[in-house]
Design goal:
Part of the 50S ribosomal subunit; part of the 5S rRNA/L5/L18/L25 subcomplex. Contacts the 5S rRNA. Binds to the 5S rRNA independently of L5 and L18. Pfam families: Ribosomal_L25p, Ribosomal_TL5_C. Belongs to the bacterial ribosomal protein bL25 family. CTC subfamily. One of its GO terms (cellular component) is ribosome. With about 200 residues, this protein is of the alpha+beta class. Helices cover about 20% and strands about 40% of the residues. The chain folds into 2 domains: about 90 residues, Ribosomal Protein L25, Chain P, CATH 2.40.240; about 80 residues, Ribosomal protein L25, C-terminal domain (RNA Polymerase Alpha Subunit, Chain A, domain 2, Beta Complex). A 6-stranded mixed barrel has the order 1-3-2-6-5-4. Strands 10-7-9-12 form a 4-stranded mixed β-sheet, with no helix packed on it. The chain has a 3-stranded antiparallel β-sheet with strand order 8-13-11. It is elongated and about 85 Å long. About 20% of the residues are buried.
Length: about 200
């Protein structure tokens, strides 16, 4: 999995006044949990754009001005309800031997025969919750739709992998091919015409 480096400065004062001053200066207050004790730091809001405003999943390398680097994943983010500015970010520190939970984007691969026959592909899950060791976290989860006919569903069990485990129920539908409205209407009209012809 790709990682994005965030250059930040460790902060000592974590009260409301200090936090407000940081935000006014265009900085985002952050905390890294998961280690011996939480690490408070701040970084420019722009530094998070590639981590936050993307459909892809990334890990983060937090490089602090005191020379410390921490590998982490984004755990929680708070936005301002009106301006959508980032107010606060929680990170979770990664350790090679400790499993973590992360939302991984689903990537559709293959061509569904059902779509070629006039059906419509519906992606029910754009992301799936995965638990794995940091080294085993995938960039994407490939959903192979090449066997889906009209009416077929692709269940999460088909995407099973030894490197990570899914946290959704086994009956979770990841994708399905449904009959299109136009095809359904045509079928209904054909049935109507056939019924009238029988009279």
């Amino acid at each position: 999995m790709k990682s994005i480096t965030i250059n930040g400065s460790q902060r000592e004062s974590v009260g409301k006044v200090a936090t407000k001053a940081l935000r006014n200066a265009g900085q985002v207050p952050c905390v890294v949990y998961g280690g011996d004790k939480p690490v408070h730091f701040a970084a420019a809001e722009l530094a998070f754009s590639k981590l936050v405003y993307t459909p892809n999943a990334h890990t983060a390398v937090i490089a602090l001005d005191n020379g410390t680097t921490i590998n982490a994943i984004l755990q929680d983010i708070q936005f301002h309800p009106v301006t959508d500015k980032i107010l606060h970010i929680d990170f979770y520190q990664l350790f090679d031997d400790k499993e973590v939970t992360m939302d991984i984007p689903v990537r559709v691969v293959g061509n569904a025969p059902g779509v070629m026959a006039g059906g419509v592909l519906r992606l029910n899950q754009r992301k799936l919750k995965v638990r794995a060791l940091p080294a085993n976290l995938p960039d994407f989860i490939d959903a192979d739709i090449s066997e889906l006919e009209i009416g077929n569903k692709l269940y999460i069990t088909k995407l099973a992998n030894d490197s990570y485990k899914f946290l959704q129920p086994e009956n979770t539908v990841v994708a399905q091919v449904r009959i299109s409205r136009a095809a359904m209407k045509a079928a209904q009209e054909a049935a109507k015409e056939a019924a009238q012809a029988d009279k």
